[in-house]
Design brief:
Four Helix Bundle (Hemerythrin (Met), subunit A); 8 helices; 272 residues; 2 domains; Helix Hairpins; mainly alpha
């Protein structure tokens, strides 16, 4: 252990580079929020009542704010995020993204199962003949361009941070968040003008489940990067200390890739 690391360890009353987290209410509250949000989604699908979803979403935002606040304090104010801890956080984020890959794989599985082996419920054809499809090369293609551009601006911001260019970092983050918000607005407009609803068959159900959960992930990613933008404006992101932004950038690129699969298979191939 280096002298600096040894001094930091003595300052925090420990003789190792690991961080033992303090007792926290956020895991339990997060589980509760996820349960309420899921229950609210089921309630909305069956009754069109969305009050429970709003409660779950508010609880989720409260959990995110409190948990991220504590993590920022641990890393920025207390110096608990040593090189060893940052390595563990990176592995944790990789495992989280891997679990998200399997999450979306389930939706694609359902979609391909219905489209490659159509049944009497769809007159043995795909897409179902009574569904007015959303043209892939209109709003979905616009959203594809928006997310690809946001991926580029996110990479620009990360590159600027590595070179300690704070001005370009802030601009890159602001553009990324802005493009994400525009994407959500376009998708909301698309949903509002769709000619089919969630409960009108296997096509509409798989469509809204896959694209809707992707929209939820874009929302979370935009909030994640918005927090990073606030931290950048406060001067808290440094070239050698930005694990939070690194995780947010990974998450955002994952969201980009998922959308490309959605556009190609559900909007383009699935609608042809």
């Amino acid at each position: 252990m280096s002298d600096v690391s040894h001094e930091n360890s003595n300052h925090h009353g420990k003789d190792h580079d690991y961080h033992l987290v303090d007792p926290s209410p956020w895991p339990a509250l997060g589980a509760l929020a996820g349960g309420v949000l899921l229950g609210g989604a089921v309630l909305y699908f069956h009754t069109d009542q969305f009050w429970m979803m709003i409660v779950g979403f508010v609880l989720t935002i409260i959990t995110m704010r409190g948990w991220w606040r504590d993590v920022v304090r641990e890393g920025h104010e207390r110096g608990d995020h040593t090189a060893v801890v940052q390595r563990g956080l990176r592995f944790g984020m990789i495992l989280f993204i891997a679990s998200e890959v399997m999450f979306f794989a389930a939706f694609f599985w359902a979609f391909f199962n219905a489209s490659l082996m159509p049944t009497a419920f769809t007159d043995f054809t795909w897409p179902p003949p009574d569904v007015e499809l959303i043209p892939a090369w209109e709003l979905p293609f616009l959203n594809t361009l928006l997310l690809l551009a946001s991926g580029a601006t996110c990479t620009w911001a990360h590159h600027a941070l590595k070179h300690n260019n704070q001005k370009h970092l802030k601009w890159g983050l602001a553009l990324t968040v802005g493009l994400g918000v525009i994407f959500l607005c376009v998708q909301g407009y698309e949903y509002a003008h769709a000619a089919f609803g969630f409960r009108e068959g296997i096509y509409s159900s798989t469509f809204f489940m896959a694209t809707g959960f992707h929209g939820f992930h874009v929302t979370v990613g935009a909030i994640f990067l918005g927090v990073c933008l606030i931290r950048a404006l406060k001067g808290q992101l440094k070239p050698n200390q930005h694990i939070g932004f690194e995780a947010a950038a990974w998450y955002w690129h994952f969201v980009d890739v998922v959308w490309l699969f959605l556009f190609i298979w559900i909007y383009w191939w699935g609608g042809s």
